[in-house]
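FAQ: What does a multi-protein file look like?

Like this. Sequence, then tokens, then the next protein.
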Amino acid sequence: MAASSEINWDRLDKTKFYVVGAGLFTGVTVALYPVSVVKTRLQVASKDTLERNAFSVVKGLLKTDGIPGLYKGFGTVITGAIPARIIFLTALETTKVASFRMLEPFKLSETTQAAIANGVAGMASSLLSQAVFVPIDVISQKLMVQGYSGHTQYSGGLDVARKVLRSEGVRGLYRGFGLSVMTYSPSSAVWWASYGSSQRFMWRFLGDGKHEKDTPSLSKIILAQAAGGIIAGATASCITTPLDTIKTRLQVMGHEKRITVKQVVKDLIKEDGWKGLYRGLGPRFFSMSAWGTSMILAYEYL
């Protein structure tokens, strides 16, 4: 089952993959978007902000804006999410297939081969999709934190884009691009590598292998893939959250204050010590685990 759980790109129904997949991933984005809003607010909160944990952030948003407050910047994100996701998924699957083929002559163990191929595919696909993701990130994150902890108010995504372009030009929309690549590419690589290897351990633990003729039950498939997604989310979030925190603060605060990466790190450590670099770890872990697991389970039925 471990081998057959890899998606065969050549045999995949591309129309179903893109059309149905886009709908499924849009649904997942709707469900998990409030988690991103909470994470972003935690990461940019100043020292004197009262809302310093996820619960208080949610409570504050609901009190001031109601449910719409949990979806600040959502329109901008959903507009860019579909093309970015198409780029990501296409690059992911084609690169994964090519990686597996390149690794065949080395006669590596199945677990090692899966970790390397999934890791390379995750990094390559993330790198390509950042061209679309970064401007969306810059705009949506500014909308997520507007009016919070002293941040500027905007009338919408176009207003953010207009002001950023006026003050810094096109490169303003790509502020933090290097850090985004350094965050999302390793994060994606670690997620997919952890998922690919942990899933194989799970199949061994569940007793699936080479001796069972019958297809594993649906409950086994869901359990193995959900466990793999949670392990991958925990691993990736623990390793890359410090970079994500720095990137978010740079993108949200950089236009007004012209701050540097060094200054962001100094401010975080001054306010919270080294744990300041892990602001938003809980929501990020939840989001990465849930998003990845949902995507994997959706794959099974596309």
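And here is the next protein:
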Amino acid sequence: YDSMGYHFAGYYSKEKRSVQGYNLSCIMILPSRQREGYGKLLIEFSYLLSKKEGVPGSPEKPLSDFGLLSYRSYWRRAIYEIILHMSLKDIGAISIDAISKKTGMTADDIISTMQTDGLLQRRPGVSNYALVVDLKRIESYVEQTREKNPRRIDPSKLRWAPFLTKGTATSIAEPKDEEVSVEEL
């Protein structure tokens, strides 16, 4: 938005009923608007919808090279922000499921990101993993991404009801149309 009004920057599409659990099918940012944070904004929006649905989501695969970089960056920031908001004693007790519920991300995406970043390390002689956290590195990364890409979606502005099928809701009526209204980003 500027003095001339709103401008088209890109779009994304989402299947109403994805059997594979995809929360995003296609994303496109106009070349003149790339590297301005709009891709990550749309990725964040797709995960906001996943959280609202109460179902973890993941982008349609395979991802392009640029798509993987964008998603890894978003996933890293989302996971790191969760870790930063925890007390030191709670970090050791965090589960992949808890991160999934807070972010709307699938366990596979969380695990692959944490392994890539060296946060999950296999313990010798044991079948489980240890969470290895370098808080200074995490704080530095989150601060850099906040400065580089300050655009964020305010979840309180979302006016949307998830697509419901029979048997998925007990006291909520099925909406007539699936409509999204984001007032201010």
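Q: Is there any per-entry metadata?
A: Some entries carry free-text notes. For the entry above: Strands lie at 10-13, 22-24, 26-29, 58-59, 120-122, 129-131, 158-159, 181-182.
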